[in-house]
Design brief:
alpha+beta, 4 strands
């Protein structure tokens, strides 16, 4: 049997696609004594770049507030380019929605913590994420929406514009 038909999965590159930091109330916010409240939003996006090449990105938004004032807002988008060949269609979407973000996410965690630290705040280390649970939750939400709209099922990966990823 030829190796050409064997399933193949490889990360070609991991890179920081976007990182922004805002401190709208600095320097006055540094004089506050209270601990900030922190809100974290996480998302996954995917795009087919070529026949067997995909970009998968994990996007995090971290907002810290003291009372009603924003101490800082960090938005980061960590991406990876993955080569995926000879994988059955039914396994492609979970691979892109679970395995790829799991590989990329540690880089995002480090970059977000570093940006917050460099901004003069105690670094915030994002919690570990179970991307399988996140993926399954998205599939369930998507199935509910599609059933309500009478649509056929689609991918569990949500693109930045709110549409489903096109992996087939």
């Amino acid at each position: 049997m030829s190796d050409q038909n064997q399933p193949f999965f490889s990360i070609q590159r991991a890179y920081l696609k976007d990182l922004s930091l805002e401190q709208p109330n600095s320097p006055a916010i540094f004089l506050e004594q209270e601990m900030p409240t922190v809100e974290v939003q996480l998302d996954v996006a995917a795009e087919r770049l070529a026949d067997e090449i995909f970009e998968v990105a994990v996007i995090a938004t971290v907002t810290a507030k003291i009372k009603d004032k924003v101490a800082f807002l960090v938005e980061g988008k960590q991406a990876g380019i993955f080569e995926i060949r000879n994988v059955p269609v039914e396994q492609l979407d979970p691979l892109i929605g679970i395995a790829c973000p799991t590989i990329v996410y540690p880089y995002l965690r480090a970059n977000v913590a570093d940006a917050i630290s460099r901004a003069g705040f105690q670094p915030i280390h994002l919690a570990e994420v179970n991307f399988q649970a996140l993926y399954e939750q998205r599939l369930a939400q998507l199935a509910e929406q599609q059933a309500a709209n009478g649509e056929a099922p689609a991918s569990g990966i949500v693109m930045p514009d709110g549409s489903s990823a096109q992996t087939h």
